[in-house]
Amino acid sequence: MSRGVFLFLFLHAYCVQAQVQNAGELHGNFQVDAQYYNIDTLIGAPVVPEKILTNGFMNLWYTRGDFSAGIRYESYLNVMQGFDPRFKGTGVPFRFASYKNDKLEATVGNFYEQFGNGILLRAYEERGLGYDNAFEGVRVRYQPVKGVYLKGLIARQRTFFSLSPGIVRGFDAEVSFNELFTSLEDKKTIVIVGGGVVSRYQTDQDPFYNLPENVGAFDGRLNIIRGKVNFLAEYGYKYNDPNATNSFIYAPGQALSITTTYSAKGFGLLLAAKRLDNFDFRSDRTAAGIGANINFLPALTRQHTYNLPATIYPYATQPNGEMGFQAELSYRFDKKTPLGGKYGTEITVNFSGTNGIVKNPTENDTLGYTSPFFQASDEMYFRDFHVEIHKKISKKLKGTIMYLNWVYNKDVVQGLSGYGTIFADIGVIDISYKIANRHTIRLETQLLRTDQDEGSWAMALLEYTYSPNWFVALLDQYNYGNYNEELQIHYLTGNAGYTKNGNRIMLQYGRQRAGIFCVGGVCRNVPASNGFSISVLSSF
């Protein structure tokens, strides 16, 4: 069925239902982002022949009883800078119909799905990255008895406005023993065990390689919860899958993720470790970048929201080989104590790091290498040590102070050469002051100090908010430490926004520095730009 015919039938069915009592509900959202691009050769902004580029979409979801259906229309005329240029034109790339009762849920069309933590399979959308690997096919979820959850799917994946050539087949099972056995319902220890199998079929049309047409992978996971402690481990194995991202070697892939958390009143502890080896899994063996990913491999580091650490040197997962670890301790000093003061104080200390893995060459060039499972290489990819303090000083004044020590192997993380490893110290001060009821002003300053790459940066943000509707902000990023004095540039930007009910309008004018934008270890390059942008969002 074509997307246009599906759209017509969907709207027609809704109009017919609206004529009878209990017609169901229609919800949705709409967003359009547009930017006018100025020529700015000083910052290296690409020339945009169209002058104006836009990204837009609308979702419509209809539900009535156990039935639901939805569509999404998207428009890229043409796609904005920083997004994949293969997003071009307009269409309806997402539509579905679903039925659900007490035991069974069946979906046809497009859908998102995740097995476990996503190491084996995860389809999701992250609109800010231009990332959408939705499945198109058939999915069934079934709960035969209480505590047993089964999923199965067969589908192809979205790649921009087309579908990837590979067919993905997957099955996942999860058992909660405390739900399954009544004798365990009141036990303090909760045990959940799960596992899945995923395979990809893609025909072999390569004139040089003898490529496996069916590639299988499986995983197992264990989740134990007792009181304030939560332990989660997941291991995945992928059979030989020569592809563009691993240079068409035939080595198998492995992935291991272990996370333990302890949470109590005013105290939290997280310990995590991860190992990846040749575990890039796609529904198209020739795809690269963010296209056709079957699984999701998050970066084992804190996802920062502050501008300099988040956008200048963010870490991207290296699926062909990395070993990482993370430890985080958070503590709240009580009110009216020497360190807590009148309102209490929160402190977080985090240390995370990632190295490469040892790769020993083999006599068989097609195998690529062997790798001892528990041995990391001496090559450092990333380090992040930071201390963050939140403090309410008075009824009107509160603030955050943060220090970060950063190590970033730019050549490895960004796939470049000649940059080496960057060592940086970053400081953040974020202060909010409530002037009066509904009136708040916030000052944020950041400093990134380094002797490598483009040198040091400073950032300042001044924001005024009239709750809950208005805000205006002025931001300046200054590359004061650049060794080329002509590139010691101010990136000045002004923002304003208005929000009411389900509607939001945002305006921006100024310069945007070139950099990398990441979410969960998945990144996209953002080129430098100069111009005016507008964003309109509405939900209903």
SSE topology:
Elements: H1 3-17, E1 25-37, E2 52-64, E3 67-76, E4 89-100, E5 104-111, E6 113-115, E7 121-123, E8 125-126, E9 131-132, E10 135-142, E11 148-159, E12 162-163, E13 167-176, H2 177-180, E14 189-201, E15 214-226, E16 229-238, E17 253-264, E18 267-277, H3 307-311, E19 322-333, E20 345-357, E21 360-361, E22 369-370, E23 376-392, E24 397-409, H4 410-414, E25 421-436, E26 439-450, E27 457-466, E28 470-478, E29 490-500, E30 503-512, E31 515-519, E32 522-526, E33 529-539
Antiparallel strand pairs: 1-2, 1-33, 2-3, 3-4, 4-5, 5-10, 6-7, 8-9, 10-11, 11-12, 11-13, 13-14, 14-15, 15-16, 16-17, 17-18, 18-19, 19-20, 20-23, 21-22, 23-24, 24-25, 25-26, 26-27, 27-28, 28-29, 29-30, 30-33, 31-32
Overall geometric form: globular
Largest sheet: 24 strands, antiparallel, barrel
Q: From the alpha carbons, calculate the radius of gyration and give it in angstroms.
A: 25 Å
Parts with pLDDT < 50 across at least 5 consecutive residues: 16-21
Number of strands: 33
Query: First CA to last CA: what distance?
Result: 28 Å
- pLDDT averaged over residues: 93
Tell me the β content. over 45%
Number of helices: 4
Helix percentage range: under 10%
Helix and strand content put the structural class at mainly beta
